[in-house]
Protein backbone atom coordinates (compact mmCIF):
# COMPACT_ATOMS: atom_id res chain seq x y z
CA UNK A 1 0.00 0.00 0.00
CA UNK A 2 1.34 3.42 -1.00
CA UNK A 3 2.03 5.73 1.92
CA UNK A 4 0.87 9.35 1.69
CA UNK A 5 2.96 12.14 3.13
CA UNK A 6 1.47 15.11 4.98
CA UNK A 7 1.57 17.33 1.87
CA UNK A 8 -0.37 14.81 -0.18
CA UNK A 9 -3.00 14.43 2.53
CA UNK A 10 -3.39 18.22 2.82
CA UNK A 11 -3.81 18.55 -0.95
CA UNK A 12 -6.41 15.79 -1.01
CA UNK A 13 -8.39 17.47 1.74
CA UNK A 14 -8.19 20.83 -0.08
CA UNK A 15 -9.48 19.34 -3.31
CA UNK A 16 -12.39 17.73 -1.48
CA UNK A 17 -13.67 21.09 -0.19
CA UNK A 18 -16.47 22.92 -2.03
CA UNK A 19 -15.25 25.33 -4.68
CA UNK A 20 -15.67 28.95 -3.51
CA UNK A 21 -15.67 32.16 -5.50
CA UNK A 22 -12.03 32.94 -6.27
CA UNK A 23 -12.64 36.67 -6.38
CA UNK A 24 -13.18 38.84 -3.33
CA UNK A 25 -15.20 41.71 -4.85
CA UNK A 26 -18.80 41.45 -3.67
CA UNK A 27 -22.02 42.43 -5.47
CA UNK A 28 -24.23 45.29 -4.33
CA UNK A 29 -27.95 45.66 -4.92
CA UNK A 30 -29.45 48.75 -6.54
CA UNK A 31 -30.49 50.05 -3.11
CA UNK A 32 -27.05 49.43 -1.57
CA UNK A 33 -25.24 51.29 -4.35
CA UNK A 34 -27.76 54.12 -4.69
CA UNK A 35 -25.88 56.71 -2.64
CA UNK A 36 -22.31 55.45 -3.12
CA UNK A 37 -19.85 57.19 -5.41
CA UNK A 38 -18.25 54.66 -7.80
CA UNK A 39 -14.51 54.38 -8.32
CA UNK A 40 -15.21 53.98 -12.03
CA UNK A 41 -17.23 52.02 -14.56
CA UNK A 42 -15.88 48.76 -15.97
CA UNK A 43 -17.12 46.32 -18.61
CA UNK A 44 -16.51 42.72 -19.65
CA UNK A 45 -17.33 41.03 -22.94
CA UNK A 46 -18.33 37.39 -23.25
CA UNK A 47 -21.11 34.91 -23.94
CA UNK A 48 -23.67 36.14 -21.44
CA UNK A 49 -27.38 35.46 -21.91
CA UNK A 50 -28.09 37.57 -18.82
CA UNK A 51 -26.08 40.28 -17.08
CA UNK A 52 -25.73 38.25 -13.88
CA UNK A 53 -23.98 35.50 -15.84
CA UNK A 54 -20.98 37.84 -15.99
CA UNK A 55 -20.70 38.16 -12.19
CA UNK A 56 -17.46 36.16 -11.89
CA UNK A 57 -15.79 38.10 -14.69
CA UNK A 58 -16.96 41.41 -13.24
CA UNK A 59 -15.77 40.38 -9.78
CA UNK A 60 -12.33 39.49 -11.17
CA UNK A 61 -12.07 42.81 -13.04
CA UNK A 62 -13.14 44.70 -9.91
CA UNK A 63 -10.45 42.87 -7.91
CA UNK A 64 -7.81 43.80 -10.45
CA UNK A 65 -8.85 47.46 -10.14
CA UNK A 66 -8.54 47.34 -6.35
CA UNK A 67 -12.28 47.54 -5.69
CA UNK A 68 -14.22 45.79 -2.92
CA UNK A 69 -17.74 45.93 -4.39
CA UNK A 70 -19.48 46.06 -7.75
CA UNK A 71 -22.97 46.71 -9.09
CA UNK A 72 -23.96 45.34 -12.49
CA UNK A 73 -25.94 48.00 -14.35
CA UNK A 74 -26.57 47.02 -17.94
CA UNK A 75 -26.00 44.56 -20.77
CA UNK A 76 -25.87 45.24 -24.48
CA UNK A 77 -25.17 43.24 -27.62
CA UNK A 78 -21.53 43.23 -28.68
CA UNK A 79 -20.81 44.87 -32.02
CA UNK A 80 -18.67 41.95 -33.16
CA UNK A 81 -18.35 38.25 -32.46
CA UNK A 82 -19.46 34.98 -33.99
CA UNK A 83 -21.82 34.04 -31.15
CA UNK A 84 -25.41 35.26 -30.94
CA UNK A 85 -25.19 35.54 -27.14
CA UNK A 86 -22.03 37.69 -27.25
CA UNK A 87 -22.63 40.68 -24.99
CA UNK A 88 -21.00 43.53 -23.08
CA UNK A 89 -21.86 43.84 -19.40
CA UNK A 90 -21.29 47.14 -17.55
CA UNK A 91 -20.79 47.61 -13.81
CA UNK A 92 -19.82 50.34 -11.38
CA UNK A 93 -17.10 49.36 -8.93
CA UNK A 94 -16.56 50.76 -5.44
CA UNK A 95 -13.76 50.98 -2.91
CA UNK A 96 -14.26 49.38 0.50
CA UNK A 97 -14.90 52.79 2.07
CA UNK A 98 -16.69 54.34 -0.88
CA UNK A 99 -17.69 57.98 -0.28
CA UNK A 100 -21.40 58.71 0.07
CA UNK A 101 -23.08 61.28 -2.17
CA UNK A 102 -25.80 62.33 0.24
CA UNK A 103 -26.07 65.58 2.18
CA UNK A 104 -24.14 65.68 5.43
CA UNK A 105 -24.57 67.72 8.58
CA UNK A 106 -23.24 71.25 8.01
CA UNK A 107 -19.72 72.03 9.18
CA UNK A 108 -19.46 75.09 11.41
CA UNK A 109 -16.65 77.33 12.63
CA UNK A 110 -17.39 79.48 15.67
CA UNK A 111 -21.09 78.65 15.21
CA UNK A 112 -21.18 79.87 11.59
CA UNK A 113 -21.76 77.37 8.77
CA UNK A 114 -18.76 76.79 6.51
CA UNK A 115 -19.69 76.01 2.91
CA UNK A 116 -17.66 73.63 0.78
CA UNK A 117 -16.47 74.92 -2.58
CA UNK A 118 -19.23 73.12 -4.47
CA UNK A 119 -21.95 74.51 -2.21
CA UNK A 120 -20.43 77.99 -2.40
CA UNK A 121 -20.65 77.73 -6.18
CA UNK A 122 -24.25 76.57 -5.98
CA UNK A 123 -25.55 79.59 -4.04
CA UNK A 124 -25.20 83.30 -4.74
CA UNK A 125 -23.41 85.24 -1.93
CA UNK A 126 -24.96 88.48 -0.69
CA UNK A 127 -21.55 90.05 -0.14
CA UNK A 128 -17.85 89.48 -0.74
CA UNK A 129 -15.61 90.81 2.02
CA UNK A 130 -11.84 91.21 1.98
CA UNK A 131 -9.38 91.47 4.82
CA UNK A 132 -5.62 91.48 5.26
CA UNK A 133 -3.33 90.29 8.02
CA UNK A 134 -0.48 88.09 9.18
CA UNK A 135 -1.70 84.57 9.93
CA UNK A 136 0.26 81.57 11.09
CA UNK A 137 -2.20 78.95 9.87
CA UNK A 138 -5.56 78.35 8.21
CA UNK A 139 -7.36 78.15 11.56
CA UNK A 140 -6.48 81.78 12.30
CA UNK A 141 -7.84 82.84 8.91
CA UNK A 142 -11.04 80.87 9.55
CA UNK A 143 -11.41 82.58 12.93
CA UNK A 144 -11.22 86.01 11.32
CA UNK A 145 -13.57 85.00 8.48
CA UNK A 146 -16.18 83.60 10.87
CA UNK A 147 -15.97 86.77 12.97
CA UNK A 148 -16.69 88.94 9.91
CA UNK A 149 -19.51 86.61 8.88
CA UNK A 150 -21.11 87.00 12.32
CA UNK A 151 -20.79 90.79 12.19
CA UNK A 152 -22.49 90.83 8.77
CA UNK A 153 -25.32 88.55 9.91
CA UNK A 154 -24.34 85.76 7.51
CA UNK A 155 -25.68 82.23 7.83
CA UNK A 156 -22.61 80.76 6.10
CA UNK A 157 -19.26 81.76 4.64
CA UNK A 158 -16.65 80.42 2.26
CA UNK A 159 -12.99 81.44 2.09
CA UNK A 160 -12.66 81.93 -1.65
CA UNK A 161 -8.99 82.86 -1.90
CA UNK A 162 -5.85 83.47 0.15
CA UNK A 163 -2.99 85.29 -1.54
CA UNK A 164 0.26 86.94 -0.53
CA UNK A 165 -0.26 90.68 -0.03
CA UNK A 166 3.23 91.48 1.20
CA UNK A 167 5.88 88.79 0.83
CA UNK A 168 8.36 90.66 3.00
CA UNK A 169 5.98 90.97 5.96
CA UNK A 170 4.14 87.69 5.25
CA UNK A 171 0.82 89.52 5.03
CA UNK A 172 -2.07 87.80 3.29
CA UNK A 173 -5.13 89.01 1.39
CA UNK A 174 -8.25 86.96 2.05
CA UNK A 175 -11.54 87.01 0.10
CA UNK A 176 -14.62 85.61 1.85
CA UNK A 177 -18.06 84.96 0.36
CA UNK A 178 -21.04 85.51 2.69
CA UNK A 179 -24.43 83.81 2.33
CA UNK A 180 -27.92 84.20 3.72
CA UNK A 181 -29.74 81.04 4.79
CA UNK A 182 -32.21 81.41 1.89
CA UNK A 183 -29.52 82.41 -0.64
CA UNK A 184 -30.68 82.15 -4.27
CA UNK A 185 -29.17 79.59 -6.61
CA UNK A 186 -26.73 80.92 -9.20
CA UNK A 187 -28.53 81.33 -12.50
CA UNK A 188 -26.21 79.08 -14.51
CA UNK A 189 -27.11 76.02 -12.45
CA UNK A 190 -30.24 73.97 -13.08
CA UNK A 191 -32.57 74.56 -10.12
CA UNK A 192 -33.51 70.88 -9.89
CA UNK A 193 -29.94 70.11 -8.73
CA UNK A 194 -29.89 68.88 -5.16
CA UNK A 195 -28.57 71.39 -2.65
CA UNK A 196 -25.83 69.99 -0.48
CA UNK A 197 -24.39 67.69 -3.11
CA UNK A 198 -20.83 67.94 -4.44
CA UNK A 199 -21.58 68.49 -8.13
CA UNK A 200 -24.32 70.44 -9.89
CA UNK A 201 -25.97 70.35 -13.28
CA UNK A 202 -25.53 73.51 -15.36
CA UNK A 203 -28.24 75.00 -17.55
CA UNK A 204 -28.42 74.51 -21.32
CA UNK A 205 -27.55 78.20 -21.80
CA UNK A 206 -24.40 77.81 -19.71
CA UNK A 207 -23.51 74.68 -21.70
CA UNK A 208 -23.22 76.86 -24.81
CA UNK A 209 -20.59 79.10 -23.22
CA UNK A 210 -18.73 77.01 -20.65
CA UNK A 211 -15.78 74.86 -21.72
CA UNK A 212 -15.64 71.35 -20.20
CA UNK A 213 -12.29 70.02 -19.03
CA UNK A 214 -13.33 66.46 -19.88
CA UNK A 215 -16.14 64.44 -21.44
CA UNK A 216 -16.77 60.93 -20.12
CA UNK A 217 -19.28 58.19 -20.87
CA UNK A 218 -21.14 55.72 -18.68
CA UNK A 219 -23.83 53.14 -19.26
CA UNK A 220 -27.06 52.01 -17.66
CA UNK A 221 -30.78 51.37 -18.03
CA UNK A 222 -32.81 54.48 -17.16
CA UNK A 223 -36.55 55.03 -17.02
CA UNK A 224 -36.50 58.83 -17.20
CA UNK A 225 -34.27 61.90 -17.32
CA UNK A 226 -34.25 62.23 -13.53
CA UNK A 227 -32.54 58.85 -13.22
CA UNK A 228 -30.00 59.86 -15.86
CA UNK A 229 -29.30 63.13 -14.04
CA UNK A 230 -28.85 61.35 -10.70
CA UNK A 231 -26.41 58.85 -12.22
CA UNK A 232 -24.59 61.68 -14.01
CA UNK A 233 -24.15 63.53 -10.73
CA UNK A 234 -22.51 60.51 -9.08
CA UNK A 235 -20.11 60.08 -12.01
CA UNK A 236 -19.30 63.80 -11.97
CA UNK A 237 -18.45 63.60 -8.26
CA UNK A 238 -16.36 60.48 -8.80
CA UNK A 239 -14.33 62.33 -11.44
CA UNK A 240 -13.73 65.44 -9.33
CA UNK A 241 -16.09 67.80 -11.18
CA UNK A 242 -17.99 70.66 -9.55
CA UNK A 243 -20.47 70.97 -12.43
CA UNK A 244 -21.76 68.65 -15.14
CA UNK A 245 -23.99 68.60 -18.21
CA UNK A 246 -25.59 65.58 -19.90
CA UNK A 247 -24.54 66.25 -23.48
CA UNK A 248 -26.10 63.23 -25.18
CA UNK A 249 -27.90 59.98 -24.43
CA UNK A 250 -27.91 57.20 -27.02
CA UNK A 251 -29.37 53.68 -27.02
CA UNK A 252 -27.45 50.63 -28.19
CA UNK A 253 -28.69 48.45 -31.03
CA UNK A 254 -30.62 46.09 -28.79
CA UNK A 255 -32.22 48.92 -26.86
CA UNK A 256 -31.40 47.39 -23.49
CA UNK A 257 -28.78 49.89 -22.34
CA UNK A 258 -28.08 53.56 -22.82
CA UNK A 259 -24.78 55.38 -23.23
CA UNK A 260 -24.58 58.78 -21.53
CA UNK A 261 -22.05 61.40 -22.67
CA UNK A 262 -21.24 63.69 -19.78
CA UNK A 263 -19.38 67.03 -19.84
CA UNK A 264 -17.42 67.84 -16.70
CA UNK A 265 -16.57 71.34 -15.46
CA UNK A 266 -14.57 72.87 -12.62
Q: Could you name the key traits of this structure?
A:
266 residues; alpha+beta; 5-stranded mixed β-sheet; 7 helices; 33% strand; elongated
Structure overview:
This protein is of the alpha+beta class and 266 residues long. The protein has 7 helices and 13 strands. It starts with 5 loop residues before the first helix and ends with a strand.
Q: Determine the mean pLDDT.
A: 82
Distance between the termini: 75 Å
* Main beta sheet strand tally, sense and closure: 5 strands, mixed
State the low-pLDDT regions, or none.
Answer: 6-21
Quaternary assembly: single chain
Strand arrangement across the biggest beta sheet: 5-6-8-9-7
* Quantity of strands, as a count: 13
Q: Whole-number radius of gyration?
A: 26 Å
Count every helix, treating DSSP H or I runs of 4 or more residues as helices: 7
The sequence of SSEs as H and E is HEHEHEEEEHEHEEEHEHEE
Kindly state the percentage of residues in helix: 10-25%
Strand content range: 25-35%
* Shape label: elongated
The structure class reads: alpha+beta
Amino acid sequence: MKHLNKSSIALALLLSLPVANLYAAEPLTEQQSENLIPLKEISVTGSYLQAQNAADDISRAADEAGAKYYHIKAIESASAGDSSDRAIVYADIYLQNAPISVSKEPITHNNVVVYSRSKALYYLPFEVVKFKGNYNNTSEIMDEASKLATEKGAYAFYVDSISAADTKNRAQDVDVLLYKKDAPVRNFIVTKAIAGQDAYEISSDAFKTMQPYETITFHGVFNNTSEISAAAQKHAIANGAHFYYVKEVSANRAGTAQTVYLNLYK
